[in-house]
Design brief:
With 454 residues, this protein is an alpha/beta fold. It has helices at residues 24-43, 46-62, 64-75, 79-97, 138-149, 163-173, 189-198, 208-220, 243-255, 275-287, 306-315, 349-352, 368-375, 391-400, 435-441; strands at 3-8, 11-20, 107-108, 115-123, 126-131, 153-158, 182-184, 201-205, 225-228, 233-237, 265-271, 320-323, 339-342, 359-365, 380-381, 383-387, 405-408, 424-425, 428-429, 443-451.
């Protein structure tokens, strides 16, 4: 029997949960139960679904302190960020609780003659969700809430290191949602691919390699799929930017939650002389508190695993190490100090691939056009940030940067759940997540033509 085991990354000897993996047949059986439940759920009407999602928001909010502590313990997220994630999860549920009352189609004038021409959206049936560990409640809910609002049932396969959070979420939703409308199937790759094979619509967030496999399997069977994958996000800093303010924003975007966000800043490109920004960044990174994620002053907690920590430390070699690149003394867990590197040789890992940790590379460009080209020279295109007082320069970057999201005088991290989320190139596949865009993804549209029988 395969077990799913989840450790506390700040204290690896602390095991949160050991539970049997669901197995392929168990996942397919859960999908079939969900498919049966989805029919009654969809037919129950907008008021029922809206009330259930409002009740779900109340349950999560009431359990906020408990859930925040669980997030800290299971994935090592600093408590301040964990509380923010719970607040976002509640807001997501409340936002989508209003959506069942939205129009589900439109009426059009026929091209010729009398009659009726209209469109109508309907749920797919079972939404298979495969989610990462770094936002163990917010990401499952920003996928599940629109799926549920539009009448789908949900089967969730969480990343193994976030299994305890997913199971606790399912307990909170039990009784609020009908039986089998929201199901968690613990497991790993076998369970994830079984869910792709069985579900009617699939949403994935995780690594680029796994996301490509999910997309390939889903498209081969004609299943609608969206995949949010990696990001190698660049921040462009122009000479007129406020250096101290910008450095503080960038340091938090590099090392907050140990850099374990797909929106974390990984590359910093100074336009012109990088010296003042370099000095400010070193100071800002060194000022961040690294340590126990339960401490409200902590910004950079542990990495999710020893392998993740070792990858950060390895990536710090090869260029000039400006700060970090070490394991902080006196900490038991999987920690790496916030790290900044410059003078990278051609083809260095930090310049070509995402390293999921508190590390970034600093470079410079002689002008804005060169900086934009450098920012777009990687395979991924999730989010970028631009730091400047020049409105024309900011607008030029917004038009030309090859990323799905552009932040001006704001960090790459942080998203607005009521707006579309997604990237370009290798970062994303399929329709956007969140906001109204999610309602389209979790439904299929029919066009109906009605003419007079006479």
């Amino acid at each position: 029997m395969t077990l799913v085991v989840s450790h506390n990354p700040a204290r690896p000897a602390d095991i949160l949960i050991e539970t049997p993996a669901t197995g392929r047949q168990g996942v397919l059986a859960a999908v079939e139960r969900a498919r049966t439940a989805s029919r009654l759920w969809a037919q129950g009407g907008a008021a029922r679904r809206a009330a259930a999602l409002h009740a779900a928001a109340e349950r999560v909010e009431q359990a906020g302190d408990e859930l925040a502590a669980l997030v800290v313990r299971e994935v090592g997220k600093p408590i301040t960020e964990a509380r923010g994630e719970i607040a976002r999860a509640v807001a997501i549920l409340r936002y989508y609780a209003q959506q069942p009352y939205d129009p589900v189609g439109s009426v059009h004038e026929p091209a010729a003659g009398a009659g009726l021409l209209f469109t109508r959206r309907a749920p797919h049936g079972v939404a298979g969700l495969i989610t990462p560990w770094n936002f163990p409640l917010a990401i499952p809910l920003w996928k599940a809430a629109p799926a549920l609002a539009t009448g789908n049932a949900v089967v969730l396969k969480p990343a193994p290191p976030a299994t305890a959070c997913a199971l606790r979420l399912a307990e909170l939703l039990d009784g609020v949602l009908p039986e089998s409308v929201f199901t968690v199937v613990p497991g790993g790759a076998e369970e994830g691919m079984a869910l792709v094979d069985g579900a009617d619509v699939v949403s994935f967030t995780g690594s680029t390699a796994v996301g490509r496999a999910v997309v390939q399997a889903a498209t081969a069977s004609g299943t609608p799929v969206q995949a949010e994958m990696g990001g190698q996000n660049a921040a462009l800093v122009l000479p007129d930017a406020d250096v101290e303010t910008t450095a503080a924003q960038l340091a938090a975007a590099v090392a907050g939650f140990a850099g374990q966000k797909c929106t974390a800043t990984k590359r910093i490109i100074a336009v012109g002389d990088p010296g003042p920004l370099r000095d400010a960044l070193i100071g800002a990174l060194n000022a961040l508190r690294t340590g126990d994620p339960a401490d409200p002053d902590t910004v950079c907690g542990p990495l999710i695993s020893a392998a993740a920590r070792d990858a950060v430390l390895a990536a710090a070699s090869g260029g000039r190490l400006l700060t970090g690149g070490v394991r902080p003394a006196g900490l038991d867990g999987w920690y790496a100090a916030p790290t900044l590197v410059d003078r990278l040789p051609d083809g260095h890992l930090l310049a070509t691939e995402e390293v999921f940790g508190p590390i970034a590379a600093l470079s410079s460009a002689p002008d804005l056009d060169t900086a934009i080209a450098c920012a777009g020279s990687v395979a991924h295109g999730l989010v970028s940030s631009v730091h400047t007082a020049d409105l024309d320069a900011a607008l030029r970057c917004a038009d030309r940067l090859a990323t799905g999201m552009v932040k001006v005088n704001a960090p790459t991290t942080g998203v607005d759940f009521h707006l579309p989320f997604g990237g370009e190139k290798a970062s994303s596949h399929g329709p956007r997540e969140q906001g109204k865009a999610a309602l389209d993804f979790y439904t299929r549209t029919r066009t109906v033509t009605m003419l007079s029988a006479a």
